[in-house]
Amino acid sequence: MTGLNLLKLALLLAVSCASARAHDPLDLTAQARLLPEGLELRLTLASSTASRLLAEGKPAAAISPERFTQLHATLQLRAPNFLTVTADGKTLAPKSVATELSQDGDVKILLQFPPSAARHFQFDAVLLKTLPAIGYTVFLLVRGPRDDQAVHERLTLEKPRCEIAAFAP
């Protein structure tokens, strides 16, 4: 194999690996951690999905690094409404919101909520109502203070909410 062919093969493998790591546009992941110091919620979605959410469900181009810079403020403003959290029936407002575009092209959102002594938490994937009904799914993992405390939920347009009892400390 010549040097040029090896270079072509290496480039093909690099592109293949990069696209294999990118987030499936229909699968959104949410990881919540219920801790004494507050609730931490991490959302990961494909940039094309985030772009579609910002465009009220209409098709939109994936978010490039340049476009992410332009949309950053809007994304931070709207992100708390993508997946809402209630504690004992009261909607929680995040005390901080952080967003980033990963090297894989995924949009990552971190919402941090103040401590709550609630006994029941409800997670509502409101964003599914904005997206077209083509099979978007939120895979939610809720963990307690200990690593052995975990609940997995699959949220869909037909079942966008789940309720989780607070974990014992």
Strand and helix layout:
Layout: H1 3-21, E1 27-35, E2 38-46, H2 47-54, H3 65-78, E3 84-87, E4 90-91, E5 96-101, E6 106-113, E7 120-124, E8 137-143, E9 150-155, E10 161-165
Parallel strand pairs: 1-8
Antiparallel strand pairs: 1-2, 2-6, 3-4, 3-7, 5-6, 7-10, 8-9
In short:
This protein has three helices and ten strands, in the order αββααββββββββ. Helix content is 24%, strand content 36%. It has helices spanning 3-21, 47-54, 65-78; strands spanning 27-35, 38-46, 84-87, 90-91, 96-101, 106-113, 120-124, 137-143, 150-155, 161-165.
Q: Tell me the overall shape.
A: globular
Q: Give the rounded overall mean pLDDT.
A: 87
Biggest pleated-sheet summary:
6 strands, mixed
> Approximately how much beta-strand content do the residues carry?
35-45%
Element order: H for helix, E for strand: HEEHHEEEEEEEE
Point out poorly predicted stretches.
Answer: 3-21
Give the C-alpha Rg.
18 Å
How far apart lie the N and C ends?
61 Å
- Residue share in helix: 10-25%
The tally of helices reads 3
Number of domains: 1
> Order of strands across the biggest sheet?
5-6-2-1-8-9
Q: Pairing-aware structural class of the strands and helices?
A: alpha+beta
Compute the number of strand runs: 10
Overall description:
By secondary structure, this protein is of the alpha+beta class. The chain has one domain. Helices cover 24% and strands 36% of the residues. The protein contains three helices and ten strands. The strands form two sheets. Strands 5-6-2-1-8-9 form a six-stranded mixed beta sheet. Strand 5 and strand 6 form a beta hairpin. The longest helix has 19 residues, at 3-21.
